[in-house]
Fold this protein.
Amino acid sequence: METYTALRAFADSWHLLFMFLFFIGMVIFLFRPGGSKVHDESANMIFRNDDRPAPPEPEASRGRDQTNEAR
């Protein structure tokens, strides 16, 4: 049996079953009851500092960045 034929038979049977089960598992994972809070938080993460700007960086970290840029 040639390598291509063996891989083709594997892809047509077992790998197709594996990919289908993986897809069903991901759908169940994404739509589980406790997941909506996590997904809502992730979706709104970019708007977290929308009302006011982010707090300024501490002076110590700014000094480090400037010395690294000078090199």
In short: The first helix runs from residue 3 to 30.
